Every structure is written in C-alpha cells, then in structure tokens.
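Lecture 7 notes: from sequence to structure.

We start with a single chain of 327 residues. Read the sequence below before looking at the structure.
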Amino acid sequence: MSNNNVLLDVQDLKMYFPITQGIILQRRIGDIKAVDGISFSIKRGETLGLVGESGCGKSTTGRAILQLYRPTAGHVLFHGEDLTRLKGEALRRKRRQMQMIFQDPYASLNPRMTVGNIIGEPLEVHNIGSSRVARRERVQELLRVVGLNPYFVNRYPHEFSGGQRQRIGVARALAVNPEFIVCDEPISALDVSIQAQMINLLEDLQAEFNLTYLFIAHDLSVVRHISDRVAVMYLGKLAELADRDTLYNDPLHPYTQALLSAVPIPDPVIEEKRQRIILQGDVPSPASPPQGCNFCTRCPRVMDICHEVDPEFKDLGGGHWVACYLY
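Now the structure, written as tokens:
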C-alpha cells in the first residue's frame, strides 16, 4: 500500500481505563484494557469495517482515533500528522476533517435544540459561513442531501422518527466537509427496513463527497455489503484483517470462522449442511485478559504456545493479516 494513498494510519493503539479503589484517597489497582495495541491503516475513499462482539473495544477504537478519548499509548497518523501530539487549537482545526456518526440517534441529539441549531453548531464552532443567513442555507442544503425536508429546520428531535434522527446526525457530521467519518454502529438502533435506506445513503454520500469510513458494526452481512476491507476484533486486539471477499470466503482465525458460522444463509439446502461453530465459555474480562493469546480460553484449536506468548499480527500475503499460531 503506497503511503501517498493512506489517509489514516493507526500504530500500536492502546486505550486503558484505570480501575481505582477508595473514595477519598483513590488507588489505582489495575486497568481495563479496552484497546490493547492494534495497528491498521485506511486508504482514501475506502471503507474499513470493524466487527466483533459487544465490549471488544470497537467504539473505543473509533473514539480514540478521533481523540475523544486520549489514547494511553500509540500513534494515530492522519495525513501523516500524529493526532496524539496535537492539543488545543491545532487539534480543533484537524477535527474539521474528521467527524463521527453516533450509535444512538435518540441520545446523540440535544432535545432542547432545533434541528437547524444542531446541524449549524459545527459551522459556528469552526467559523464556516459568512453570515447567519449563509449558515441557514447550508443547513437546509444538508437536510436536502440526507433526504429530509429543508423546512424542518425549526423542529425539535422528538418530532422525528429514529431513522430521520439518524439522518440529522449524518447531516451534522457532513456540515464541516470532513474527509474521514467514524460510523459507530449507525444502523443498530434502527428498524431493518430503515437500515437498508441508511446504508444506501452512506454509500451515496461516500461517492458524492469522496469520504473515507471506519464502519463499526455487529451485523456481518451489512459489513460485507458496505466495506472494502474488514477487521475482526476480539477483547481489545485485532484477530484478522483482510479484503472483504477473502475474509468471508476464506476466514483463517478460529474466532472469525466462529463468527461467520453464525451468519444465516438464505438458502435452506446450504443452511442444512452448514456446520455451526459453538464457542465454549464466556469472554474474559478486559481487566484481566488471559496470558498469551486473548482467544486461548475459548479457541477450539488451542495449542500449548497459545497460553504462553501472544501471537504476532502478521501479513500472510495479499494484505491478509492474522494473529494466530496456526499460520
């Protein structure tokens, strides 16, 4: 991958949250290792899907990339500039190029602000637009772009359905003309019928504005539809990363194989012959992950070395990365 084409480069990113004890004199007694040393890059105009079960660190990764959480360690290079070293005004200027679409369209919009003020707030923060009239026209144009009536500017969030609210969230993210958007499970709170509309909208916007996405989701079939490459995360670490067709047709990591075996296939003949992989046990706590490979306590193909040393996340060729001693 040529460096000229890489928009975002994440290097050994770690995000630990301290566990403290005591009310007045708080002692640090450990860490929750939400993200534990992950590395990947995203090319311009690409969509990288990030999948994994709840609590594996997907959303924390997205927030740490945008510096909503300050990472414990590692580097996030955006246009070659390390975001972890930026502060104050320099970081705020960079934030114009990066935005986020949040998971919950009910919680992410201020109920006391009108839609016009919600979408217009980024324009004011970054001083975009020559006047209030120009900003209002920009807000109406954004509503049009996401498929809403531009005359809704004076309405409040409670007057909209869940799908419409998420469109307002998309319009807010687009307001400052970003290059990179973290889509943090943008469809998981929506009805299935609305999910398809939202996916189509995101794809249309990507083509129109040359956007780059980090698309975080649970639904593996949706991720396959929208993503160019897919990364699989387990307990704070990346298990596998590959081109979407390679990953879905030839998954290498035992965790990826188990995940994909759970996706139903709309063909009763194939579905009947298919072998489900049922993982034993529960996901370990990120406060005390197992020694060696994070997946060793549940892996059906575990070996002695898996309990001792963490496998290296390496490229097996053709951009297919995997962290497993089987390869």
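The first strand starts at residue 6 and ends at 21. Keep this in mind for problem set 3.
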